[in-house]
Amino acid sequence: MIIFVSDFDLRGSGYMNIAIAACNQLAKHGHEVTALGIGYTGNEHNWDFQILPVNTRQAFVHIPAMIQNMKALSAGGQIPSIEALVVALDIPMQERILSFEQRAGIPYVGIFPIESGPLCQSWANVLGLMSKALVISKFGLDQMSEAGVPGAYIPIGLDTEAWRRPTKKERAKLRESMGFTDDQLVVLTVADNQERKNLSAGMDIIAEASKEIDVQWMLVTRIFSQVGWKLDDMAIEKGIMDRFMKFERGQSFDRLWTLYACADAFLLPSKAEGLCMPIVEAMAAGVPVLATDCTAVTEHLFENRETREGGRGFPMETAFVHQDPWGNSMRHYVDFESGARQLAELWEMKKDGSLEDEIIKPARAYAESRTWDKCGAMLDEAIREVMLKPEPVPLAPIAGVIPPTIPQIIPIQEEDLDEQEE
Amino acid sequence: MSKRSRRRNRQRNKPQQKKQTPSAGTLLDICVPIYGEFGLARKAIEHISGALGGLNPDHVRVYALDNGTPDWIAEDGESKVTPEEMAAPVKEVMRSVDKYFRVDINEGYPGGVNNLVSKGRSPLVLILTADVFLQEGAIEAMVRSMDDPTVGVVGVKLLFPLDMESPHGPGGTVQHAGVAFDIRGKPYHVLIGWSTDHEKVNVRRDMAAVTGACLMTRRNLWNEIGGFDRRYGIGTFEDMDYCFSIRSLGKRVLYEPNAWGFHLVSGARLQGANQSGFNLPMNETVFRGKWAQMLAWDEWRYL
């Protein structure tokens, strides 16, 4: 049996999509999978694996308890033996599970993004504790390599049959139903309302581009977020309120696909991305992508990210870079004027008919190349590899140590006293 | 005491014993506690004949108890409606062999059910709340499950009514398919909101507990345990407690998906009966204190 830990909040999260597909792939490869689903609340599903609910706030208390219980159940023959623990979460979460898992002695496969570089030593050390570290972008693998951490790149897949291109008729009908006209440039952004996604820059780009083009902007996000932008206030401030439509995250797939099907462009002004599946989803749905030319985004936008050949999107330049507390890594601030220029170029290419062959078709081909079968085969191989490795000896629990902040009697340092007296 | 008076006493006792066994020779007593929800109770009782399936109705008795419903103010806002008047529609659908009782002071759900169960004598007891409408053959399926002597309790599959919007799922989805315990040892209705025909919903299986909204048990076990524990006051957790008691006696608690019905959750409240004041945290504490050693994480068995 494989224990798979990830975010399974079915209202929508990047990890949820990856986790469900990965678990399905593992089941397809003959593994029995039990997922410990953070944020899962027991909703109905028909997948060939089991999901047990984990309360989000208590996740790092409950997950270790669940794993320990499962080990006991396995030892008692009530469930099959545990072959591996696969954890698909951000590195800080992996660190918390690893701190427990070392004592549990189960082979550990981590699947994670590296949003930006350089990879700090603390996080490199965390990744070094994994039996197998699978990073979800080539950019991430570069960062690991520079930090001297062994690992492999796992290509996250996409269901391109579901993420199909709309027919011309469908698109026309959907746009009409949404109230869009042919001479309007409809831009879609799917991004959480958080600092890294840089939605304020997205508004700047729309405002700037609107000086020349009739732009309409659809934003799928977490509308009310304590740490996010006050979206309406900002749209008013930027003068784009009449061009701005917002949708709450967690839209049903058909509803979300409808928004992609209406769009002329997909805009992502992020400061850093570990992968960003919405970019690939847009490419699959035939929507040209404009995104900040940084981190893992670049490998979506170019066939060859080093030579920058084989462009299949519109890279937006970075205005400046700063260092962020998130792993001490860099944040890339998009140049909004570059974004507006790219949007204008996209519009021109659409009008002259070159967009389809130069951007949309190569992007669709790229999306089609990212299959879940490849991802599943690689994950299966990684699990079989770690199962052959000898297990680390469980560490003895540390007991009886008084936390250093608790007041304790400090012995008098007689030598110091002597010195003071002197 | 003289011989004559002893004989007289014996003779007096004989008919009294007969009086106390109105259901002698019957198989099942169906106990329907009521607190205000007379309309629902009528509907629940009306559904019983279909739910009996192939069972002989002569072997079944229905006992209904008005657990201290107070006078209500009628819709005109002035005149009072007495419990007797409200009970009339319920009595209408009960047979002459069935029994209707009333207590003037509410005994709480556990107390009321204990009182009600004590009225009958059949070896099997079905506790049926007034907001559960059992479907064709449900009671027969439960009785058949009781053919296995290791089974001490049978619970059923309950669905949200078709016309009811629930936060867990649309009407017709699962309201109860057994009770599971999460990693904190907290009980919850597992598979709630799932489709009624989902494979996982339709596994006949042992569970730690089932809801008391519709629960069949054996009278001898009921008596041995002492019925519902009255420490749970006006109610909640008494059904969990009873199931744990059953298992502590080495008997099984079975979920029988072939027996199913609709559960108009909180039907009494929807009908205006004042049933506020359930002390969930306190009852949970009582339950955990009593059964700490038997609490186990088991949701992995069902999900």
Please give the radius of gyration of chain B in angstroms. 20 Å
Whole-number mean pLDDT of chain A: 92
CATH topology descriptor of chain B: Spore Coat Polysaccharide Biosynthesis Protein SpsA, Chain A
Number of domain modules of chain A: 2
Structural class of chain A: alpha/beta
Please tally the helical runs of chain A, counting DSSP H or I stretches of 4 or more residues: 15
Percent of residues in helices of chain A: 40-55%
Describe the largest sheet of chain B.
10 strands, mixed
Please report the distance between the alpha carbons of the first and last residues of chain A: 71 Å
Largest interface, chains and sizes: A-B, 18 and 17 residues
Extract low-pLDDT stretches of chain B: 8-23, 270-274
CATH class placement of the largest domain in chain A? Alpha Beta
Can you tell me about this structure?
The complex is a heterodimer of chains A (422) and B (303). By secondary structure, chain A is α/β, with parallel strands linked by helices. Chain A folds into 2 domains: 2-157 and 373-388, Rossmann fold, CATH 3.40.50; 168-370, Rossmann fold, CATH 3.40.50.2000. In chain A, 41% of the residues lie in helices and 19% in strands. Chain A is built from 15 helices and 17 strands. Chain A has helices at 14-28, 59-75, 91-104, 121-128, 138-147, 168-178, 199-209, 231-238, 253-262, 277-284, 297-301, 336-352, 355-369, 372-388, 414-421, and strands at residues 2-7, 33-38, 50-54, 84-88, 108-112, 132-135, 152-153, 185-190, 215-221, 244-248, 265-268, 289-292, 302-304, 309-311, 314-316, 318-323, 330-334. A 7-stranded parallel β-sheet of chain A has the order 3-2-1-4-5-6-7, sandwiched between helices. In chain A, strands 10-9-8-11-12-15 form a 6-stranded parallel β-sheet, with helices on both faces. In chain A, strands 13-14 form a two-stranded antiparallel sheet. In chain A, strand 4 (84-88), helix 3 and strand 5 form a beta-alpha-beta unit. The N and C termini of chain A lie far apart (71 Å). In chain A, 46% of the residues are buried. Mean pLDDT of chain B is 88; it is low at 8-23 and 270-274. With 303 residues, chain B is α/β, with parallel strands linked by helices. Chain B has a single domain (26-301), classed as Spore Coat Polysaccharide Biosynthesis Protein SpsA, Chain A (Alpha-Beta Complex). In chain B, helix 8 runs parallel beside helix 10 (280-291). The longest helix of chain B is centred in the first third of the chain and has 18 residues, at 3-20. Helix content of chain B is 31%, strand content 23%. Chain B is globular, with a radius of gyration of 20 Å. The A-B interface holds A 34, 42-44, 46, 50-54, 58, 62, 65-66, 69-70, 73, 79 and B 169, 173, 182-184, 188, 190-195, 198, 297, 299-300, 303.
